[in-house]
Amino acid sequence: MPHSCAAWKCSNRFTVETRSHGITFHRFPKDKGLRKQWELATRRKGFSASPSSMLCSEHFRPEDFDRTGQSVRIRYGAVPSSSVLHKLRLRHIAELKTAVTEGQKKKLCKAVRFKGF
Ligand SMILES: [Zn+2]
């Protein structure tokens, strides 16, 4: 079974396709306090992360990533950002500006609705 992102309303799955879009998946930290903050950031009521729970990179800010190693890691102490929805909206608006045809615009809006914004 492919892993999915634990965040509420996030439909990202750990597949070759999401990987090709530069989306990475990250396990919850072992540190209890930090883990709690990640659990809260999923915005799912009473959510408790299991050892296999993961969050996708869409919930972090660019400065939260450590890209110096072979694989992309989340810096120790980084907490998923609640401003991510805002970030995604901004990206959506930027994409809409570059969409040329009506068909492309519709497709983009549909993608955003699917994600639950
Ligand atoms: Zn996600």
UniProtKB/TrEMBL annotation:
GO function terms (MF aspect): DNA binding; zinc ion binding
Coiled coil location: none
InterPro entries given in the database record: THAP_Znf, THAP_Znf_sf
Domain of life of the native organism: Eukaryota
SUPFAM superfamilies (alphabetical): Glucocorticoid receptor-like (DNA-binding domain)
SMART domains with a match to the protein in the record: DM3 (SM00692), THAP (SM00980)
Record's keyword terms, sorted: DNA-binding, Metal-binding, Zinc, Zinc-finger
Sequence ranges assigned to domain THAP-type in this UniProt record: 1-83
Name of this chain's protein: Si:ch73-130a3.4
Upper lineage: Eukaryota, Metazoa, Chordata, Craniata, Vertebrata
